[in-house]
Specification:
183 residues, 3 helical TM bundles of succinate and fumarate reductases, two-stranded antiparallel ribbon, 4 strands, elongated
């Protein structure tokens, strides 16, 4: 390692130079040095910064990192079940398209929906949608913190209100569908 001689209070003092990344002696390899300057500090407020610095080793993170913690697993599964929400919306649009094309197209679509494989798949979609809905509603007390007369509403009340609203809206939709279908 090399040193620098400075004069401090009339005395000569040798101070070692900081080693830069490269060789063990701190010298920049010739092939790197030939590419440009030695990486002098770019800002006077940080004299220790150089453009040539070692890259720190970071442990690779496995793709299944989320399986090690139950909460992370629940979060990832809820995020994955949003694909079922997307599928349900697309299925509704395709159903409306079949209705707009006439009775024959609608009957063909209904027959496709009645196939055993499609029914089993839609039961899996229903399970995914229920999981997504329940876990989403369970987040409501953390996301919504209402105050009434300066006091915080308890999280259980917020959760109960959301579940009651979900049940009430589902009942209304079922009643409307039942009456529309002539049941």
């Amino acid at each position: 390692m090399t040193s620098r001689t400075e004069e401090v209070n009339g005395r000569k003092k040798e101070t070692p130079l900081q080693a830069e990344a490269g060789t063990p002696e701190g010298m920049i390899p010739e092939e790197v040095h030939a590419m440009g300057d030695r990486g002098e500090p770019t800002a006077p407020e940080n004299p220790h910064h150089t453009r040539y610095h070692p890259k720190w080793h970071r442990e690779p993170i496995p793709i299944t990192w989320w399986t090690r913690n139950r909460r992370y697993t629940a979060f990832i599964l809820r995020e994955l079940t949003s694909v079922f929400v997307l599928y349900s919306g697309v299925l509704l649009l395709v159903h409306l398209l079949a209705l707009s094309r006439g009775p024959e197209s609608h009957v063909a679509f209904q027959e496709w929906l009645g196939r055993p494989g499609v029914v089993v798949f839609h039961l899996l979609v229903l399970a995914g949608l229920l999981y997504h809905s329940v876990t989403w509603l369970n987040l409501a007390p953390r996301a919504i913190v209402p105050h009434i007369r300066g006091r915080r509403v308890p999280p259980r009340v917020v959760l109960l209100a959301h579940y009651l609203a979900w049940i009430a809206l589902s009942a209304v939709l079922l009643a409307v569908l039942w009456s529309t279908l002539g049941g």
